[in-house]
Design goal:
The chain has 645 residues and is mainly α. The protein is 64% helix and 5% strand. The protein has helices at 11-34, 42-47, 54-65, 68-81, 96-109, 115-122, 125-158, 162-211, 214-220, 240-258, 260-267, 272-311, 329-338, 342-380, 386-411, 418-429, 431-442, 448-464, 480-491, 499-520, 526-529, 537-545, 577-583, 625-630; strands at 557-564, 572-574, 590-595, 605-610, 620-623, 639-643.
């Protein structure tokens, strides 16, 4: 049976691969749906009660960062340009300190539930709804793009038109996100992250084995493909300087500072310190390793093609390898090197679909959070119980999934590589809002009027750079004349109009307008912005605790036992003086208590406050039955305590 990219799949092989993919979908859906039991309220649904350890969140971010488009896009780029395909995964380092010591503590201690909510508290309601429009456009773009790329893969592999395959995939996907919420997303992403690395490793090693080993792979790889960077300016579609100013600057800030999905993952972590660990682990370990996993098959593909050409024909043990459509580089190489084993190939393809699920589940949950916290709750239903909002959140998840499916129609009309299609959209959407976030968080003087005017102006002008005339008017306009001087200044005279430069241009316009308007308007009072800028984090910390923070460093108190005390309020525990001394805790301090089994990663845990110490058994932790239930603690299972501050 001849497929869309030239794979000769037998009917039996097609059935085996199809069954494996469907079973994988079902297993993941059931796995995620199981965790619906840990979403008692709206905070659990979106933020998992802020209970998880750093390593669990960091590990789950593997699958969140690798989408279905990652395997296709970066293997295509690896085939075309070699190891420089890793650039977009390894350029976040310079922005991480601003996130770890600025943005993360601001949004965490301020109890921000969505990025638009921050805009209202930092600026005003108008800024909030401008941000809602931009962020939802960003999130829906990614949902549609992921669905589009998996549709490409399934159509080429099985010959199933996207009009049928994408809705089916979305149906499985929406099930566990709709009912399980953030906890389901984290645990399914943890499982899928492992599967993604295993599958990617299989694909890479199979290709290297087919070549005859690592020396053969390296020997046949062109020198140009061994370089970590491509020419600074030569290729308008993929160049080092353009990637820095577009992807590393605008893209990294967007993914780190305004991607609601990633922000929610950090807000599900038990403390800011653990969030910092997760961020550092992500940039030092996860991203570089992920860059290899998703791009190396493209490097292998290049060596295979070069060796095949040099040998004048088919390589031993392989059929002729032809990559006519570079979109399918990953799939072609996997099939030609694994075709003797349909089960293994089916697993790799199932992992590819898992990449879709693991990214979109985060995005759907994020869109639902914005839908509830920024649209439904403030506009339509200001006062309701958690049960009502939980139901509304699940409907919002359904609508987000349907919206992403509809956007696939738009992507099908685009032309160019997967990389260029991706950046054409992203570099239009993100410049104005990432600039506004950065100015708002790190510049106290930045005003509400400046934020609103600069976001609108920056967005409009950035969008207009796509057209050669102003829409609906027919008035000719050449924004390339504005972009070219900036491009030439940053990238040299060889530079043309690059899609990446559009992002830099948009950020420059937004920043300029914001600075000018700021100095023309009166600043907000110190009380208005307390806890919302980098120089007021101490105030945010005090507000988060509801008292003066206790920064004295203590030790964890391990393997303590629970004793129920009906008289204690919900969320309050009583400890022995000895345990209080171990923790270096005072009355009213914030304590994190968790099931002593570390591998649960905080699944059964809760934040509480201390009250007057008890005089009983030193190893007893006294709490109300409701506090125990909120933490999902089990009878007879010891717990561990840790002072937050």
């Amino acid at each position: 049976m001849e497929q869309g990219f030239g794979l000769d799949l037998s009917v039996a092989a097609t059935v085996v691969i199809g069954v494996i993919c469907v079973l994988y979908f079902v297993i993941i859906s059931l796995f995620g749906t199981y965790f619906a039991r840990f979403s008692k309220n709206i905070n659990d649904f979106f933020y998992s009660g802020q209970r998880f350890s750093w390593w669990l969140a960091a590990a789950s971010m593997v699958a969140t960062g690798i989408g279905s488009y990652s395997y296709l896009k970066y293997s295509e780029q690896g085939f075309n340009t070699g190891m420089s395909s890793t650039m977009t995964y390894t350029n976040d380092w310079f922005i991480v300190p601003f996130f770890m010591f600025g943005w993360l503590p601001i949004i965490y201690f301020a109890r921000v539930r969505s990025i638009p909510e921050y805009f209202e508290r930092r600026f005003n309601k108008t800024a909030r709804y401008i941000a809602v429009v931009i962020i939802l456009a960003y999130m829906f773009f990614y949902i549609g793009y992921n669905l589009y790329t998996i549709g490409i893969a399934l159509e080429g592999l099985f010959g199933v038109p996207q009009i049928f395959s994408i809705p089916v995939v979305a149906l499985f996907l929406g099930a566990y996100v709709t009912f399980g919420g953030q906890t389901a997303v984290i645990f399914t992403d943890l499982f899928q992250g492992i599967m993604l690395y295993v599958a990617g490793g299989i694909a890479i090693l199979a290709g290297i084995y087919a070549l005859g080993g690592f020396q053969e792979w390296w020997g046949w790889l062109p020198v140009s493909h061994r370089l970590p960077f491509v020419h600074p300016t030569a290729d308008p579609k993929f160049n080092t300087i353009g990637l820095f100013w577009g992807e590393a600057l605008a893209g990294s800030i967007a993914f780190t500072f305004m991607n609601q999905g990633f922000i929610m993952r950090y807000l599900a972590i038990k403390s800011v310190n653990d969030g910092r660990k997760a961020a550092l682990f992500n940039v030092v370990i996860t991203l570089p390793l992920s860059a290899i996993i998703v791009g190396a098959v493209g490097w292998v593909a290049k060596s295979l093609i070069v060796k095949q050409t040099a040998m004048g024909g088919v390589l031993e043990g392989l059929n002729p390898i032809h990559i006519e459509n570079t979109f399918h580089t990953f799939l072609v190489v996997c099939w030609e090197t694994l075709r003797h084993n349909s089960v293994v190939f089916g697993f790799v393809i199932a992992a590819l679909t898992a990449a879709l699920m693991s990214t979109i589940d985060t995005l759907i949950n994020a869109c639902a959070a914005i839908g509830i916290y920024d649209i439904y709750k403030p506009i339509f239903k200001k006062e309701a119980d958690d049960r009502h909002y939980l139901k509304a959140a699940r409907w919002a998840s359904v609508l987000a999934t349907v919206g992403g499916v509809l956007l696939v129609i738009l992507f099908n009309k685009q032309q160019g590589s997967l990389m260029s299609i991706h950046y054409k959209g992203i570099m239009i959407i993100i410049p104005s809002i990432v600039t506004t976030i950065f100015l708002g968080a790190f510049w106290r003087r930045f005003t509400a009027k400046a934020a609103c005017i600069s976001m609108i102006t920056g967005s409009l002008i950035t969008v207009l750079t796509v057209f050669d005339h102003i829409p609906f008017t027919g008035i000719p306009v050449d924004f390339t004349k504005m972009i070219k001087p900036m491009a030439a200044f940053f990238a040299g005279p060889q530079n043309g109009v690059y899609i990446y430069m559009r992002a830099l241009f948009g950020m420059g316009v937004t920043a300029l307008v914001g600075i000018i308007v700021t100095y023309m308007t009166a600043p907000a009072s110190k009380e208005k912005i307390a806890g919302l800028t980098v120089d007021t984090i101490d105030e945010a910390m005090a507000a988060y605790k509801g008292g003066v923070p206790n920064h004295t460093v203590g030790k964890k108190a391990k393997r303590l036992n629970i004793k129920l005390a009906e008289e204690l309020p919900v969320g309050v525990i009583s400890l022995s003086p000895a345990v209080m001394d171990t923790l270096k805790a005072d009355e009213g301090d914030l304590i994190y208590m968790a099931d002593s089994r570390w591998y649960l990663g905080g699944l059964r845990s809760q934040h509480v406050k201390t009250t007057v110490p008890h005089a009983g058994d030193p190893l007893l932790v006294m709490m109300s039955p409701a506090t125990k239930d909120d933490a999902f603690f089990l009878d007879e299972q010891p717990i561990t305590l840790e002072k937050i501050f």
